[in-house]
Amino acid sequence: MTETGKSGATPIEGDGKRILMILGTPKTSSLCQALGEAYAQGARNEGHVVRQLKLGELSFDPVLRDGYDQSQPLEPDLLEAQRQIHWAEHLVFVYPVWWGGLPALLKGFFDRVFLPGFAFKYRGRSQLWDKLLSGRTADLLVTLDTPPWYFRWIYGAPAHRQMTRTILGFSGIKTRRLNEFAPVRPSSEEQRQSWLRHAEKLGSRA
For residue 183, is it within any domain? Predict the structure, then answer.
């Protein structure tokens, strides 16, 4: 977990916006990692407080084995993740799209962490629910090998709809910006450097 503010100095809590970045890839070195660091640097330069959760470094079972019976104790890393989400005003999710959806590690993180009583709560036996994470916003930084137009118009952008509507929106988190960096596989070094500069600008506008 890292936490820094303007010019890399440790800030006084409350100086800037409280931002939690969640890196949703198991890879330790990737374009997602670089985009996240660029965004964080842009935010820190504006005096915001940035903390990071790198899911690939956490220790937890990503399989929700008993559904929502809640008989599966949360590991210490997941309990800490819940505390960090409660702390944050703004969330940043950085992840690749694999097979048209979220990486299994990120999906497993949502399954285990966004539980009833934490992310949402049904009102008795009705179909209505309370959104327990309301008041927070999110930015999504997403890499794809598929051209964005093809992903949207041919595939229907399933990963984007899942994140913005059925996970974050269901829990009360409003997606402010969804940023696609694609297609990655044929991209040049010049293109990737341009993406990193764009990610830093996004962070500066956090």
Answer: yes
Burial of 11 (0-12, 13-18, 19+ CB in 10 A): middle
Domain count within the chain: 1
C-alpha torsion 150→154→156→159, nearest 10: -50
| CB within 8 Å of 27: residues ≥ 6 apart | 33, 56
Task: Provide the CATH number for the domain around residue 133.
Answer: 3.40.50.360
Structure token pair of residue 173: 């988190």
Q: And the tokens for 179?
A: 């940023």
CA gap 138, 24 in Å, rounded = 14
Q: Do residues 22 and 92 make contact, with C-beta atoms less than 8 angstroms apart?
A: yes
Which tens digit of pLDDT belongs to each residue from 155-191? 999 999 999 999 999 999 999 999 999 999 999 999 9
